[in-house]
Amino acid sequence: MAADALTLAVVGDLHWHVDQRPTFHHHFKSVHEVADFLILPGDLTGAGLSEEARLLAEVLAKVRIPVIAVLGNHDVHTDNGPEVTRILEDAGVRVLHGGGDAVTFTAHGMTVGFCGTKGFCGGFGARCLTPFGEPAIKEFIAETKEEAARVDHDLRDLHADFKVVIFHYSPIETTVQGEPRELYPFLGSSLLCEPVDKLGANLVVHGHAHLGAERGHTESGIPVRNVALPVLKRSYAILEFAAETRVMRATGTDG
Ligand SMILES: [Fe+2]
Ligand SMILES: [Fe+2]
């Protein structure tokens, strides 16, 4: 880990099942040697079961750097999201839901701020779902707008030298490419990207699109990384930013 660089270890879509315990215990053992922060963009558990969250919490409690996460659709599948959040937070993980829970730290002489939320679906660009017609359609896209509003709120209040936005769903189309086209509307929404481009950030990370592409950027040029474990095909990605310029360096040593 370079002394003059901010280094983030990022991986989503762990889908932590109880029978994976033996291998996952080694997963993050030495992450503190290569990164300043560990970021987990959702689908941490297989089905949002408390037992799954407890096993993950056992491992994350031993991580020696700050761990920041959002939940994914799998984590809320059994309507147990608040309990999953509580179990992880008891282990020291900061689980962000947006709308007022952004966190800041100091590293390499700068403040590093994180905000995020799960996000939701609706599609991208000109094909983004609009609130027209049936009440169910209006409710569907209202959920996405609400998620975007949470990040809008947090980015307005987040005063940091370096800002990271964490979603589970994708805010751009580029990083879902590779998935079947029919699934695009269910993999994310451009609405999530609006506050990011409007208010600015240094990096956006997400997961969810297991067959998607790793790299993309927003319309204003902010780097976006799809860090779903099946996309990375490695324990985590290492993203390194020069402390002075806050520009991303070529990928460092990945875990
Ligand atoms: Fe997933
Ligand atoms: Fe997901």
Commentary on this structure:
By secondary structure, this protein is of the alpha/beta class. It has one domain (5-242): Metallo-dependent phosphatases (Purple Acid Phosphatase, chain A, domain 2). Helices cover 23% and strands 21% of the residues. It contains six helices and eleven strands. The strands form two sheets. A six-stranded mixed β-sheet has the order 5-6-7-8-10-9, with helices on one face. Strands 4-3-2-1-11 form a five-stranded mixed β-sheet, with helices on one face. β9 and β10 form a beta hairpin. The model has no long low-confidence stretch (mean pLDDT 94). One fe (ii) ion binds at residues 43, 72-74, 168, 208. One fe (ii) ion binds at residues 13, 15, 43, 72, 74, 207-208, 210.
Structure ligands: fe (ii) ion
Beta-strand percent range: 15-25%
Give the ordered list of helices and strands: EHEHEHEEEHEHEEEHE
The rounded Rg comes to: 17 Å
Helicity level: 10-25%
> Number of helical segments?
6
CATH top level class name = Alpha Beta
Strand order of the largest sheet: 5-6-7-8-10-9
The CATH topology is Purple Acid Phosphatase, chain A, domain 2
Pick out the low-confidence regions: none
Give the rounded overall mean pLDDT: 94
CATH architecture: 4-Layer Sandwich
Main beta-sheet annotation: 6 strands, mixed
Helix vs. strand class? alpha/beta
What is the number of beta strands?
A: 11
CATH fourth-tier homologous superfamily: Metallo-dependent phosphatases
Instruction: Give the overall shape, derived from the CA principal axes.
Output: globular
